């Protein structure tokens, strides 16, 4: 039988700091994944990111990304 566990794997969720993306990040983190949510607005994401990290024993992180840039620079909030 194949193991489909995501425990310990890193997942990237674009638009993942609020609403549906935030729920997905929390769920994946609860399943043991290292969830990284990428969003474009720090002021909108900070409260949700803090809640997600608290709910998932610090296995979720949020990064801010500039979508139009092809290099996708990511900065830690």
TrEMBL record:
<protein>
    <submittedName>
        <fullName>Short chain dehydrogenase</fullName>
    </submittedName>
</protein>
<feature type="region of interest" description="Disordered">
    <location>
        <begin position="46"/>
        <end position="77"/>
    </location>
</feature>
<feature type="compositionally biased region" description="Low complexity">
    <location>
        <begin position="46"/>
        <end position="60"/>
    </location>
</feature>
<dbReference type="InterPro" id="IPR036291">
    <property type="entry name" value="NAD(P)-bd_dom_sf"/>
</dbReference>
């Amino acid at each position: 039988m194949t193991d489909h566990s995501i425990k310990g794997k890193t997942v990237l969720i674009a638009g993942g700091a609020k609403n549906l993306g935030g729920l997905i990040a929390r769920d994946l983190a609860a399943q043991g994944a290292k969830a990284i949510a990428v969003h474009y607005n720090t002021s909108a994401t900070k409260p949700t990111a803090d809640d997600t990290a608290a709910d998932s024993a610090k296995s979720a992180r949020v990064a801010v990304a500039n979508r139009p840039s092809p290099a996708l620079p990511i900065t830690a909030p």
